[in-house]
């Protein structure tokens, strides 16, 4: 009697591995995206806090081309552009200062998280909280996955 596996047994094992991979891969990709986004949000908060310190020292808020006035190191981020504004770009995200708001968005532009400077014509929520704004169905799922408070115009994180 020969020892070994039959072709059918090998095919069944390959099929089972394929099914497990098909189930696990999307969950893995979501976990990786959420982890990258959490890291990016930490940097976004640090950038905003640096802008607040700049405001306390000068009475002004940094504008779109004034990344150098911030007191944190952004040397590991490349310089890019978005709609004419100077950005700082990581591998997966763009950090943007647009007039009165500091924000972040992925390069697929499916969502954006931002926070407005105090003293501008915004609601209290826009100034006091970071807000996730979905731009498509993928962004909607991402913003929902953060567990923030849902309101009519986005999801809010209470600082």
Automatic annotation (TrEMBL):
**Keywords, in A-Z order:** Membrane, Methylation, Transmembrane, Transmembrane helix
> Source organism's superkingdom?
Bacteria
Key word Transmembrane helix present in the record? yes
Kindly state a single biological-process term from the GO annotations of this entry: protein secretion by the type II secretion system
GO terms for cellular component: membrane; type II protein secretion system complex
Q: Which PROSITE patterns match?
A: PROKAR_NTER_METHYL
- Which InterPro entries does the UniProt entry name for this protein? Bac_GSPG_pilin (IPR000983), N_methyl_site (IPR012902), Pilin-like (IPR045584)
**What is the protein's membrane topology class?**
Single-pass membrane protein
- Say yes or no: keyword Acyltransferase present: no
User: Which residue windows are transmembrane per the record?
Assistant: 7-28
Subcellular location, in the record's words?
Membrane
State the name under which the record lists this protein: PilE-like protein
């Amino acid at each position: 009697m020969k020892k070994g596996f039959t072709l059918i047994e090998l095919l069944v094992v390959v099929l089972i591995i394929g099914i497990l991979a098909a189930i696990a891969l999307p969950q893995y990709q979501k976990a990786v995206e959420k982890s990258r986004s959490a890291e990016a949000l930490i940097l976004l908060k640090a950038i905003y806090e640096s802008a607040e310190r700049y405001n306390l020292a000068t009475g002004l808020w940094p504008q779109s081309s004034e990344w150098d006035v911030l007191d944190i190191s952004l040397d590991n981020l490349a310089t890019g552009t978005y709609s004419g504004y100077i950005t700082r770009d990581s591998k997966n995200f763009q950090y943007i200062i647009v007039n009165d708001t500091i924000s972040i968005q992925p390069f697929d532009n499916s969502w954006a998280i931002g926070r407005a400077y105090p003293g501008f014509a915004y609601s209290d929520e826009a100034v006091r909280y970071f807000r996730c704004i979905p731009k498509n169905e993928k962004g909607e799922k991402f913003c929902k996955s953060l567990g923030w408070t849902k309101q009519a115009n986005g999801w809010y994180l209470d600082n």
